[in-house]
Amino acid sequence: MWNHRNVSKALNIRLTLRCSRQFRESEIIFSETEETDTVSQTATYQSFSFFRKMNPKDDKKTDLCPSPVFVHNPHLDALKDDVLYHFGLGTRTHDLPAMFGDVKFVCVGGSPWRMKSFIEYIAAELSMEDPKSEYPNICAGTDRYAMYKVGSVLSVSHGMGISSIAIMLHELIKLLHHAHCTDVTIIRIGTSGGIGLKPGTVVVTKQSMDATFLPKFEQVILGKTVVRNTDLDQSLAEELLQCSKELNQFETVIGNTMCTLDFYEGQARLDGAFCSYTEKDKQDYLTKASEAGVCNIEMESSVFAAMCKLSGLRAAVVCVTLLDRLKGDQLNESQEVLRSYQQRPQILVGYYIRKQLKAKAVCS
Ligand SMILES: O=P(O)(O)O[C@@H]1C[C@H](O)[C@@H](CO)O1
Ligand SMILES: O=c1cc[nH]c(=O)[nH]1
Q1: 118, 140, 226, 227: which has the highest count of C-beta atoms within 10 A?
Q2: Which ligand is nearest to the CA of 300?
Q3: Per the database record, which ranges form the Nucleoside phosphorylase domain (predicted)?
């Protein structure tokens, strides 16, 4: 007998099958001894293009059925209690569906201060201010990450760099999955160094690239290098660009973002504790990056794109540029100016969320 529960279970199985195929096809494994030189990297890139062609529905959500948040881990089913250690939350200790089941928008960024200020901003934008203006940190039991929630918007800090955001995303994706969230959009609101852009320009990422300008994220699993796809949702990027046009408050561009493992040598800075290259070497490297379409440099977009794609989350990266790296390395603007720049991605994403919620209210 087909009742609502059976239908949604069947639907889930179908979506899970589709997504596990997507999971398998979206990664390529190199053993450590195999070459990972430019030739094999080019082959990887070509495979990604092939994969993209196989999944025409990737970018546009054409399915009318709700889209769940996927995990790809059979071991999770055997866990009696899934402890989300770095959040100080767990499936036995917390009613995750009650706490987070309504989440539709997740915004993440490096600093806890920024993510708190974002939730205050969004609460005001959505006229959902707490009369006491208190927004408790849901992860108060730990000092690793901070998390805030207002209505259907969740704001989470991720610290600096790929490893820090990856740990946060593992737990966030499981949290959204355990809470049975559907149709979630996730946006990283961050800071970056620009290439040839006026400081304060906001960059919506088209493609996240590694430090060799290839659209991939590499992870060593069981001693083997697994290469994952770093595609982001193109239609979401276009919608965000359109929002910035409507807002008309600051310059916004769409372009590639280079994700590095380090802020200093990894981003060709001349002001780290160590430096073995010249100003000309730096300029040549940044020029090559620019020729590959790179508009800005930060430290999280590649793993963010890869993990969001694997879990079926609609994802975008919106980063403000704090300086033009062709002109310098040091962040010597006043704190006031830097803070005002940091607010720009928040303003843009706040506008986008409000627009989405308004459109949904009209439809329902
Ligand atoms: O989100 P944030 O502003 O932390 O992103 C960039 C990349 C690094 O995490 C950090 C370096 O200053 O800023
Ligand atoms: O230059 C910069 C500025 C912010 N974040 C980065 O990763 N690089």
Answers
A1: 118
A2: 1
A3: 104-353
Q: Which ligand is nearest to the CA of 111?
A: 1
Q: Would you say the CB of residue 297 lies under 6 angstroms from ligand 2?
A: yes
Low-confidence spans in the chain with pLDDT less than 70: 1-63, 131
Task: Measure the CA angle with vertex 268, ends 335 and 109; round to 5°.
Answer: 45
Q: Is the CB of 175 under 6 A from ligand 2?
A: no
Q: Which domains, from first to last, does the chain contain?
A: 67-363 (3.40.50.1580)
> Which residues make Cβ contacts (< 8 Å) with residue 224, sequence separation at least 6?
29, 30, 31, 32
Beta pairing class for 147-150 and 153-157: antiparallel
pTM of the model: 0.88
In angstroms, the CA 326 to CA 332 distance is 15
Distance between CA 275 and CA 273 in Å, rounded? 7
Is the shortest distance between the CB of 298 and ligand 2 below 6 Å?
Answer: yes
Pairing of strands 83-84, 89-90: antiparallel
Q: Is 192 in the pocket of ligand 2 (CB under 6 A)?
A: yes
pLDDT of residue 27: 66
Render pLDDT for 227-276 as a digit per residue (tens, 0 to 9): 999 999 999 999 999 999 999 999 999 999 999 999 999 999 999 999 99
Do the beta carbons of residue 305 and residue 215 sit within 8 Å? no
